[in-house]
């Protein structure tokens, strides 16, 4: 994420130093932290592909502290392992608590963007004892969309959980909102419905979600929108995690363009978060030496 780090460094007016990562044939990593003698280090690493990144992240934190850094702040625009917030079946690990507790031990603060917090209200409930900031990507998305969006566009959230988030983007742009609903038929069958979908006839539709991964729900929405006469369908999200095959499936379903923030490194990640992150870092006082 060097490009994202450089953009954030410019916004925060701080120097950027890459962390050295050398991988050995046996799979271990040698981490080399820059020696710069600063009081505070902002460590930027998004945690998509978390199993490969977490150990290196903890080693980097340790190396920075060994080099004299007193305060290490993790900037993880995408924060993994937040979905499993309870044991749904006997024997399951509650990864949100495990990973949140681990990060609390190794960092003095955490910043992320639009984390999946389903049954808790605040990020510090998952990452206890340190400042833990959950930012919204809405300002970045609004700024990007305002430059080119057709004012007739209808914003569509895929499910009821997305409503507050979709409305926070639609309100400053003055756009109409539709939100999908999952309708259960018995114990197993689930269908998707979009109340008021007739509003998209001959109008462009923009699907809005926090994470684009497999794309299954977005494809189901796109099928409904296309059948309802939408003149075009695009999608935007905070986090793009979809594989090339999934991106191709969404394209084949009629989603002509997919954009996301640069919370992850991905072909769709074209909307910068540097300003949102820098404003939060500055407001937290982490650019000041105690």
Automatic annotation (TrEMBL):
Name one molecular function that GO assigns to this entry. Answer: magnesium ion binding
A biological process from GO? 5-phosphoribose 1-diphosphate biosynthetic process
Please state every residue range assigned to the domain named Ribose-phosphate pyrophosphokinase N-terminal: 5-104
- Which CDD domains does the UniProt record give? PRTases_typeI
Tell me which UniProt keywords the record has, alphabetically.
Nucleotide biosynthesis
Taking the record's annotation, the residue ranges forming a coiled coil are none
What does the sequence similarity comment in the record state about its family? Belongs to the ribose-phosphate pyrophosphokinase family.
- Which Gene Ontology cellular component terms are annotated? cytoplasm; ribose phosphate diphosphokinase complex
**Cross-referenced Pfam families:** Pribosyltran, Pribosyltran_N
State what protein this is by name: Phosphoribosylpyrophosphate synthetase
Output the PANTHER family linked to this UniProt entry: RIBOSE-PHOSPHATE DIPHOSPHOKINASE FAMILY MEMBER, RIBOSE-PHOSPHATE PYROPHOSPHOKINASE 1, CHLOROPLASTIC
Q: What is the lineage of its organism?
A: Bacteria, Pseudomonadati, Pseudomonadota, Alphaproteobacteria, Sphingomonadales
């Amino acid at each position: 994420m060097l490009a994202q780090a450089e953009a954030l460094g410019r916004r925060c007016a701080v120097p950027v130093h890459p962390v050295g990562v050398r991988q050995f044939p046996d799979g271990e990593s040698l981490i080399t932290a820059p020696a710069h003698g600063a009081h505070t280090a902002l460590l930027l690493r998004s945690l998509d592909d978390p199993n490969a990144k977490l150990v290196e992240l903890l080693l980097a934190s340790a190396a920075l502290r060994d080099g004299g850094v007193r305060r290490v702040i993790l900037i993880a625009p995408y924060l993994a392992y937040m979905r499993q917030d309870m044991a749904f079946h006997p024997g399951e690990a509650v990864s949100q608590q495990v990973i949140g507790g681990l990060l609390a031990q190794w960092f003095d603060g955490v910043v992320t963007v639009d984390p999946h917090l389903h049954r808790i209200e605040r990020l510090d409930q998952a990452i206890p004892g340190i400042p833990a900031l959950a930012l919204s990507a809405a300002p970045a998305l609004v700024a990007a969309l305002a430059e080119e969006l057709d004012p007739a566009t209808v914003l569509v959230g895929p499910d009821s959980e997305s409503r507050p988030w979709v409305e926070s983007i639609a309100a400053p742009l003055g756009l109409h909102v539709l939100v999908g609903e999952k309708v259960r038929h018995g114990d197993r069958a689930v269908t998707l419905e979009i109340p008021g979908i007739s509003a998209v006839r001959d109008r462009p539709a923009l699907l809005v979600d926090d994470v684009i991964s497999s794309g299954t729900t977005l494809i189901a929405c796109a099928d409904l929108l296309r059948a309802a006469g939408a003149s075009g369908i695009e999608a935007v999200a905070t986090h793009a995690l979809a594989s090339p095959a999934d991106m191709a499936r969404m394209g084949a379903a009629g989603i002509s363009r997919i954009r996301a923030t640069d919370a992850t490194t991905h072909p769709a990640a074209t909307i910068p978060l540097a300003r949102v992150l820098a404003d939060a870092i500055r407001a937290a006082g982490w650019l000041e030496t105690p």
